Amino acid sequence: MSTAKPAGRTRMTVSVPADVAEYLRSTSNASAVVCEAIAVYRARELDRRLEEAYRADAAEAEQLNREWEGVDAEVSE
Question: Hey, which bits of 1-77 come out as E strands?
Fold first, then answer.
């Protein structure tokens, strides 16, 4: 009898609230549900980090624009 795991898979034990455990037990593929939920969570986290970075960059770009306004005015005259 083979005990080989599917390629790229790792068995884990995690603690979850009772309602989450009940839901996972009621699904036909709890692993797929967990993987999809984590993929959604990671995408949301990436979006949040990117938004923070864009805001920081926008503030820096605004500051640079203010610093160069005088030079830009001289060039366009």
Answer: none
Asked if residue 65 is part of any domain, the answer here is: yes
Structure tokens at 48: 């949040």
Q: Looking at the domain assignment, is residue 10 inside a domain?
A: no
Query: Model confidence over 44-71: pLDDT tens digits?
Result: 999 999 999 998 888 888 888 888 887 7
Calculate Rg over the CA atoms of the chain: 25
Whether the CB-CB separation of 33 and 41 falls below 8 Å is answered with: no
Residue 51 forms part of a structural domain: yes
* Whole-prediction pTM: 0.62
| Angle, helices 30-76/18-26, rounded to nearest 10 degrees | 110
